[in-house]
Structure formats: structure tokens, C-alpha cells
Amino acid sequence: MGGAGALEPCAENKLVVIPDDWPGYKLDLFVLPQHYCEDLKCVYIPHGVIMDRTERLAKNIMNDLGDNHITVLCVLKGGYKFCADLVENIKNLSRNSEKCISMRVEFVRLRSYRNDQSTNEMQNLGGEDLSKLAGRNVLIVEDIISTGRTMKSLLSQIEKYNPKMIKVASLLVKRTPLSDGYKPDYAGFEIPNLFVVGYALDYNEHFRDLNHICIINEIGKEKYKV
Ligand code: HPA
Ligand code: MG
Description:
Distance between the termini: 34 Å
Strand content: 25-35%
Shape: globular
Bound molecules: hypoxanthine, magnesium ion
Oligomer: single chain
Number of strands: 10
């Protein structure tokens, strides 16, 4: 378990594994904001594929948690797009199904990255009061799990308030030797140990306004370094 290339598949083997040699798509095959064109290497996961995979995750969540009231905890800032699209899909499924999920959406703002490196600490920037999660069915929604430290730290803070249930959905899981082996309950894609941006994932607050998930190049890293 754990380690590059040795990640066990997520819950029920259900995630898309992107191999180390996946080259992505050439930038000029897609529409991208002009201001980022020289900063990116490739389109790694096109927006449409993210949407289709999110629809399937919503269906899995609906199957498991249908007929419950859940509190969706969106981890800001990177999780906002995935969370919005996931909630929208769950709502649509719930409308057209016997099972009905009622949802409430809360937010927590965390930061653990500077440039393309983890800072080893999880900061609860909004100082959110997690006590409101006491007794609730909580679904944490994250953009990416890399080392697993941020998620473990958040989970241990929430567990103090005795929620009824906690599940975690992450759009991406990174194969990295720094992983502590943590696996979310629902995951969209397992990706190699690369720094990705777009679809709300940032590099020092840049690239959130990019629809596709892309790989940043050295020019981009240098241009937006802090
Ligand atoms: N991109 C953006 N944020 C991140 C990443 C990444 O690849 N890994 C962990 N946080
Ligand atoms: Mg995140």
C-alpha cells in the first residue's frame, strides 16, 4: 500500500487510473484562455471528461447515501468547482429517483500548498466552526488528495464533534511517494506525481479560471512563483 505506482484502487476499485506515460492533449486542440497559453504543457483532463466522471460519482454517492440528509463540506478554494458540479448532479439524480437526498452545503477554507510544494501544515484560514457538523452525515468534497495530510488533519478535527458519518469525495488522487496511504471513499481520477492546474486547482491562486485540468510548464511556474 502507498508509494508511487503502488496505490491500491479506491473504494470498490472505482476510479479512473491515468498512467505515468499519459501525454495529455496538445493545447491547440481545445479552447483555452489566451493569457495562459504559454504557461501550460498540455490539457491533461478535458472539462467534458471531468463532468462525465462527476456524474458517475454522483450516482455512486446517491446509491450509497440516498434517503439521507447530508451536509456537504466543500473544501475551499480548490474544491469549489467539483463541489458545485457534484451537488448539481446529485440534485438532478435525486429529482429523478425514488431515493431522495436532501443536502446542506457548508464550507471550510484550508491551505497547505505554496508554489508546487506541500507546506506540511494545514491552515483553517476561515477559522470555521466545525462543531456544526456534530451528529450529521458529512460528505467532505476536495479537489485533490496528495500526501493525505490535509485530509487526515481535517478528519481528526471533525471527528472531535462526533458526526454520524463522514465520507470523503476527491476529484483527484495523486500517486506520490509522499502519500501516507490515505484513500477517499469516492475518487474521480488517480493521476501521476505531476502538478496540475485548472478546474479551480491553482498554482499560487492562478489558473482557477481554466476549465480543463492542465499541466503547468516551467514558464508558468516561474511566472507565478511567490
Ligand atoms: N495542483 C494544485 N493543487 C495541489 C496539487 C496540484 O497538483 N497537489 C496538491 N495540491
Ligand atoms: Mg484542495
